[in-house]
Amino acid sequence: MKVKDIPLAQYVEWLENKKYFSILRWADGEWAAVFGTVGTWAGSEQSRSIELQKDLRQNLIKSAKFSHPESRILFAIPRHVREGTEIFRIERYLQQQNLTKIPWVRGNPFYYASRDGKLFPLIETLRNKNLGGYSRSKGINNIIPQ
Fold first, then answer.
1. What stretches of the chain adopt beta strand conformation (E)?
2. Burial of 92 (0-12, 13-18, 19+ CB in 10 A)
3. C-alpha angle 68/71/77, rounded to 5°?
4. 126 and 140 in contact (C-beta within 8 Å)?
């Protein structure tokens, strides 16, 4: 399973050049639910239910059809999904479901930029961009004040 590293500056550049993308966060809790693992994760909530497992599996299958470079739809594997056996388990599951063409991207740039106080270029770009959807949307100033 190949997992790309994309620097935060690349996301900012895509936004500035109107190359839109989406990020779906798939971390330890989401994968545990897909695999039916009982336990508690970072959010301290139980992540095991048949409905959640079914919904996440369906979400992954439906989302995969939009996963090609032109659409910039990226699936993030944050830093806390272990690189060892967990990645192999995920890869095996994706192979079994015929979902091997999904472009996986490591979620580290967002974590590290936030930790190091370097998220401002992304926030500034989001503040100044029309985010689409609603015609009156003029960025996120009402959500993240200056």
1. 3-4, 22-25, 73-77, 104-106
2. exposed
3. 65
4. yes
Beta bridge partners of 75: 24, 104
Note the pLDDT tens digit of each residue in 125-143. 888 876 655 445 555 555 5
CA distance 38 to 47: 7
**Checking DSSP bridges between strand 73-77 and strand 104-106, what pairing results, if any?**
parallel
Beta bridge partners of 3: 104
Global confidence as pTM: 0.69
Nearest alpha-carbon partner for 29 in 15, 45, 17 = 45
Instruction: Give the count of beta carbons closer than 10 Å to the beta carbon of residue 24.
Output: 15
How far is Cα 41 from Cα 47, in angstroms, rounded to an integer? Answer: 7
